[in-house]
């Protein structure tokens, strides 16, 4: 059973995905979550706090994946690759992608929502730079993965099927050669 905070975050995601960023209002989210506006405000004092909560939830899931990386050289870079695009095309996180796309749309309405994300990306970048492999390789893999993820997110001709697997293998090999 989900708690009220998670139910509100799920409702906000649904409103964004179904109706777009302009429709993300506290009233619409409260209605979708089946809570009063006061109940929503108890958990999120403003729309900005709600969007920040959505970002925090996605980031914490990604942080957990990075925290699971071992200490061997390149482990965090391999986890970054796997958590972002997945080894198999069907492993790509469609729900997470849709949520992230919705959050980017929300950032157009609430530009300050990207501030914490910039700080988090800087932290992830530092982690990869200190992954025991050439920092230039770790950064090149991150940038390739981020571009790949964005291509999938916006449906900008991302690699499909066997090509997806081959590109993944090339990046994995690059990490391994740098170890």
Write the layout of secondary structure elements.
Elements: H1 4-19, H2 26-33, H3 37-43, H4 47-67, H5 75-85, H6 94-109, H7 114-129, H8 135-153, H9 161-178
What does this structure look like?
It is a single chain. It is built from nine helices and no strands. It has 179 residues and is mostly helical. The chain has two domains: 1-45, Orthogonal Bundle (Arc Repressor Mutant, subunit A), CATH 1.10.10.60; 52-178. α2 crosses α3, α4 (47-67) runs antiparallel to α6 and α5 (75-85) packs antiparallel against α9 (161-178). The chain is elongated and about 55 Å long. The protein starts with a helix and ends with a helix. The mean pLDDT is 87.
Q: Which structural class do the helices and strands define?
A: mainly alpha
Assembly of the depicted chains: single chain
Strand content: under 5%
Straight-line distance between termini: 43 Å
Order of helices and strands: HHHHHHHHH
How much is the radius of gyration in Å? 18 Å
Q: List the total number of helices.
A: 9
Largest sheet: none
Specify the helix fraction band.
over 70%
Which key terms come to mind for this protein?
9 helices; elongated; 2 domains; Arc Repressor Mutant, subunit A; 179 residues
Compact overview of the structure:
The chain contains nine helices and no strands. The protein is mostly helical and 179 residues long.
């Amino acid at each position: 059973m989900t708690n009220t905070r998670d139910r509100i975050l799920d409702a906000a995601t649904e409103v964004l995905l179904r109706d777009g960023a302009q429709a993300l209002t506290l009233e619409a989210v409260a209605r979708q979550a089946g809570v009063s506006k006061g109940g929503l405000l108890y958990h999120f004092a403003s729309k900005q706090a709600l969007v920040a909560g959505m970002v925090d939830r996605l980031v914490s899931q990604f942080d957990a994946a990075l925290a699971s990386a071992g200490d061997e050289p390149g482990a965090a870079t391999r986890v970054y690759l796997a958590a972002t695009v997945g080894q198999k095309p069907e492993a790509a996180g469609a729900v997470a992608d849709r949520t992230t796309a919705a959050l980017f749309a929300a950032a157009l309405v609430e530009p300050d929502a990207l501030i914490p994300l910039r700080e988090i990306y800087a932290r992830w970048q530092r982690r990869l730079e200190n992954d025991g492999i050439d920092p230039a390789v770790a950064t090149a893999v991150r940038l390739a993965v981020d571009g790949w993820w964005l291509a999938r997110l916006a449906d900008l001709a991302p690699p499909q099927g066997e090509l997806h697997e081959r590109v993944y293998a090339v990046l994995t090999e690059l990490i391994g050669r740098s170890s």
